[in-house]
Amino acid sequence: MIKGAIFDVDGTLLDSMEIWENAGARYLRSIGKVPEENLSEILYPMTMAEGAAYVKENYQLAFSVDEIIQGVLDAVRDFYFYEVRIKPGAREFLDGIKERRIPMVAATASDREHVEAAFKRLGIDGYFERIFTCAEVGAGKRYPAIYEKAAAYLGAEPGEIFVFEDVLYAIRTAKKAGFHTVGVYDRFSAGDADEMRRQADVYVRELDGELAEKL
Fold it and tell me: 8, 47, 49, 59: most buried by Cβ count inside 10 Å?
């Protein structure tokens, strides 16, 4: 019997992965610059400081590297506070889990302030008993710490908990740690969809009310 549910946020509940690919371009547009078409591909392997230095030099910006980094972070913050949308079917799914009186928590690599603001604006904050963040736990999702902390809070064993994720490495981590896993399709991880389908206990195109009744 399922005794708890742990939800990833970005790409699973929120349609938010785009900001992590487009934050640099959003920042440049906000200061009147036209970003190159492949900017996200150029910046992807760089650290924040390296990316800011690249933008400063190639777009001839008068701002310091630190100011550019802050500008990008502000663009990310504004996206969560004012723009991000809940993914189709997710609200109905949360309703279904709540009706079954299954406790829910969120486990995210994103900033707590961003997630809390988005949840409150979208009216889904009341579904979750607690939000766990990778920063606060001290490890990313290639390690099971965040899921284990959440399980301890829920007072249940991994085999009694479903973990909902949209990326392959997180599914693998949770499954290896003994959790039941549900892979959720997201367009930004579509290249791993076939392998996610093989690895996850359940794989869905989107969350919905019917799925909540089947788990």
Answer: 8
